[in-house]
Structure formats: C-alpha cells, structure tokens
Design goal:
about 160 residues, alpha+beta, three-stranded antiparallel beta sheet
C-alpha cells in the first residue's frame, strides 16, 4: 500500500503570518498535534506543533515553526512511512507534489490501516473494512481473519 490510500486530503493548515494563538486555537479545536505551514500558493514552508507552541518564544507561526521538515509523496510505500515515523520519532508527514501540500499521513492513519486490514485464509487477498467481511471479495471464501503485521524487509 502507499500513502495515497491512507492519507488525509483535507488538511487543516496555517499561514506563516498567523499568530501563535491562532495556531494554538486550530490545534485545540481540531484536536490535532501539528499543522502544516503553507504560503498563498499552497507551498509547504514548515510545520507548527504543540511542542512549538509551548516551548518557543515568538508571536507568529513563522517565529516558532519547525523548518527542514521531512515529507513524502503520494506514492511512497507505507512501510517507508512507518520507518520514518518510528525512527525520526515524529507524528506526521506532509504529503507533497512538486512542493505543494496535497495531504498528510500520520501515525493514526497507519494505526487505522492495521485495524481495518483483513486477509483471506484461502487466496491471500487483503481487503480493508471497518468490520470483518463475511466473504472474500476475490474468491468468495468465508472466514477472513485479521491480517498479520508484514515482516519488514531484511528481518
């Protein structure tokens, strides 16, 4: 699977000139922990997080935002995203296309993907559903089971 299949497309963003308090309100109202910072052309400039709000001095988002962020594209494999989130100890990755923000993928998106993954014990088809499907969409077999975690390459 790739990022495009699980990413959030309607991303709540903030502008570089918005105040620290406006960013804090957005984080609080939407119960999220980070906001991509974009310019008027939807070009990604940085990220402002809860940590930035409470730990950095400044009046505007531009004063406190994190620069030099890691991002991915829509066709990045989810295993690579998992690796980045775990090893860089971050919670979200902006999804960009030629510098423009098109979505965001978070730890929660990956958890949701694991929670809704089912595998047919007969043909091996992997499907996604909030509830366990009664029949395999590919072969019609009954008894789909929770999909085991994929084994990372090189393990």
């Amino acid at each position: 699977m790739n990022v495009e299949e699980v990413m959030t497309r309607n991303v709540i963003t903030v502008g570089v000139d918005q105040t620290k308090q406006e960013a804090a309100r957005l984080l609080s109202q939407h119960r999220i922990s980070g906001l991509p910072v974009i310019d008027n052309n939807n070009v990604l400039l940085g990220i402002v997080t809860e940590y930035d709000i409470i730990s950095k001095e400044g009046q505007t988002v531009g004063d406190i935002m994190t620069h030099g962020i890691i991002s991915v594209t829509a066709n990045t494999d989810l295993e690579e995203v998992r690796h980045i989130l775990v090893h860089e100890r971050i919670k979200r990755l902006p999804v960009i296309d030629q510098g423009h923000l098109i979505g965001i993928v978070s730890r929660g998106d990956l958890v949701r993907e694991v929670a809704t993954r089912w595998i047919c014990q007969v043909c091996g088809e992997v499907s996604h559903s909030d509830e366990q499907p009664t029949n395999c969409p590919r072969c019609g077999a009954k008894g789909l089971a929770e999909s085991p975690e994929p084994v990372p390459p090189g393990s």
